Amino acid sequence: MTYLTSITLEVADPTAADRFYTAAFGLGSRVRLRASDAPTTGFRGFTLSITVSQPADVNSFIDSALEAGATSLKPATKSFWGYGGVVQAPDGTIWKVATSSKKDTGPATRKIDELVLLLGVEDVKASKRFYVEQGLAVAKSFGGKYVEFAAAEASPVKLALYKRPGLAKDVGVPADGTGSHRIVLGGTAASFTDPDGFAWEATSVTSTSS
Description:
Elements: E1 4-11, H1 14-24, E2 31-35, E3 40-42, E4 46-51, H2 55-68, E5 71-79, E6 82-88, E7 94-99, E8 114-121, H3 124-133, E9 138-142, E10 146-149, E11 158-163, H4 164-171, E12 177-179, E13 183-187, E14 192-193, E15 199-202
Parallel strand pairs: 1-2, 4-7, 8-11, 13-15
Antiparallel strand pairs: 1-13, 3-12, 4-8, 5-6, 6-7, 9-10, 10-11, 14-15
Helix pairs in contact: 1-2
């Protein structure tokens, strides 16, 4: 089975970005950084989501991200599905922090339950077929709206597909955008580029712990 082994954000200043992510989320080796000056404007077509167990942890991560220099796109608030908020990192990456719980069970632990990479795609069904052909296994599928792929134990991040306009609306930004996605996905298959221009690089499983 093919699966995601790493994600690399392309940023203008890797040192500054590393300081931000260490202070904001404490992600460690879950997210890699690479220098790039590739042009990009508007929505880059993806978001990263941190799933936690309770609102206190949402608030803790949102607050530390803002203190480290992030911009608020959606303040943390309750909704019918739970509690969450959205911020944009100084490098431009959009992060959502959310929980399905609406009540705290204790103080914030800053434990990350899941890290999810959501790709905003033009045609969810077509992209699903493409990824299945690359060897990825589907874990959940809701027609042409949403697809979630199976993740191995060695994978630090879960991969999902969502329609681009819907994903942009969910995080509070216009769907328009051009240029580089500024993200590279590492996987257990050969290198390839998907129908929406997201680039994959072949990586070894052991490299995720380096």
